[in-house]
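We were asked to recover a plausible sequence for a given structure. The inputs and outputs are reproduced exactly as logged, with field labels preserved.

PROBLEM: sequence recovery
POSITIONS: 179
GIVEN STRUCTURE:
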């Protein structure tokens, strides 16, 4: 278990480095805005609009997203409630996060997981958007750290979870001829 302590120590050091950045107020304001773009209802709007504009492929993409997010949210919920990692505000003395988190535990980051899943799913049909979506997803991950609600490894695992589920579901849909 010494490796877990080493990871936790590095996580806290990295987190503290992020919190000590100059221009903290500007970073917090930008982080709030970026983080809000990864709220779940934004995805619903995108997929509904895309399904209206691109009838057949849009409906297939919305169906893929529905199943992919269902799987990702299930895994996320199990991890979150099994690992039960405290958020930085509970884990660090004299630290207060800049927003009120949506749930109690920190690991993994659901906003980050959802953002990377969205990136995988959308880029499968709109590959030209991939660089922008990856930059946005990384921004979501960083925003969650800078808002003080996640440690860096929470976002790293969230990115891996969203990417792996997206990759797996894309493969499943492609092999079945559904996409």
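RECOVERED SEQUENCE:
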């Amino acid at each position: 278990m010494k490796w877990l302590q080493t990871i936790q120590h590095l996580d806290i050091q990295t987190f503290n480095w992020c919190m000590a950045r100059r221009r903290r107020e500007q970073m917090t304001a930008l982080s709030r805005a970026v983080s809000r773009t990864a709220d779940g209802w934004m995805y619903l709007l995108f997929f509904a609009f895309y399904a209206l504009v691109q009838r057949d492929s849009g409906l297939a993409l919305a169906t893929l997203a529905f199943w992919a997010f269902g799987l990702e949210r299930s895994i996320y919920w199990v991890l979150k409630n099994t690992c039960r990692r405290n958020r930085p505000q509970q884990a660090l003395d004299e630290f207060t996060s800049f927003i009120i988190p949506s749930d109690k535990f920190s690991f993994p980051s659901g906003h980050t997981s959802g953002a990377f899943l969205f990136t995988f799913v959308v880029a499968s049909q709109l590959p030209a958007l991939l660089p922008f979506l990856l930059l946005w997803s990384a921004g979501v991950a960083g925003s969650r750290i800078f808002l003080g609600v996640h440690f860096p490894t929470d976002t790293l695992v969230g990115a891996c979870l969203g990417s792996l589920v997206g990759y797996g579901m894309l493969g499943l849909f492609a092999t079945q001829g559904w996409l």
